[in-house]
Design goal:
The chain has no helices and eleven strands. The chain has 155 residues and is mainly beta. The strands form two sheets. Strands 2, 3, 5, 6, 9 and 11 form a six-stranded antiparallel sheet that branches. Strands 1-4-10-7-8 form a five-stranded mixed sheet, with no helix packed on it. The chain is elongated.
Length: 155
C-alpha cells in the first residue's frame, strides 16, 4: 500500500525542496520526488504518532500494548525488543521510526528526525514507518495513527 498525501514542492535549478505528511497507517508514502545517483537527500522530520495500539492479551503487547513515538521511533525498552526486529521493514531503525527507500523495491534505510546522505541509486523517494512487513502481518499498520511531517531537500 502506497499513500500519496498533500505536499508542497519548490524546484530551483538542480535543487528540490518539498514538505510532505507521512501517515503512520501506511507502510510507504511516495514523495513524488525522483532522485538520481550522486544527489544528496536531506530530511528533517517532526511529529508524533502511534505505531502500536493492540490488545493487552496479544503476545506482542509485552512490555507495552500502546506506544507513541517521534520520527526516531521507540527506544528499546526490554530485552526482547530486538527478538522480532527481522520482521520489520529494516533492522537499522527503531520500531515506529521514519524510514525511506529509493524505488518500489529499494532497500529500506533509517531516516529518523534528521537524515543527510549522498545516494547511489535512481528512483522515486518513498518514506514509511518501521513496522512489521505486510507479508509477516498484513494488519500491522491497522492500529497505527497520526503522521510525521517531513521536509525534504534534494541537491
Amino acid at each position: 500500500v502506497v499513500s500519496t498525501p498533500v505536499t508542497t514542492q519548490t524546484v530551483t535549478s538542480n535543487k528540490v525542496s518539498k514538505s510532505t505528511d507521512v501517515p503512520m497507517d501506511t507502510p510507504w508514502t511516495s514523495t513524488g520526488i525522483n532522485v538520481e545517483s550522486g544527489q544528496t537527500i536531506n530530511i528533517t522530520a517532526s511529529g508524533k504518532g502511534v505505531w502500536k495500539n493492540i490488545s493487552k492479551s496479544n503476545p506482542n503487547a509485552v512490555p507495552n500494548a500502546y506506544e507513541e513515538c517521534s520520527p526516531d521511533g521507540t527506544l528499546p525498552n526490554s530485552g526482547d525488543y530486538w527478538s522480532n526486529i527481522s520482521q520489520y521493514q529494516t533492522r537499522e531503525a527503531n520500531k515506529g521510526a521514519l524510514i525511506g527507500r529509493i524505488g518500489t523495491n529499494g532497500k529500506p534505510f533509517k531516516v529518523g528526525s534528521q537524515f543527510s546522505q549522498r545516494i547511489n541509486e535512481n528512483g522515486t523517494l518513498y518514506l514509511g514507518i518501521n513496522d512489521m512487513r505486510k507479508e509477516v502481518d498484513s494488519s500491522s499498520y491497522n492500529d497505527n495513527s497520526g503522521s510525521f511531517q517531513a521536509k525534504i531537500e534534494i541537491k
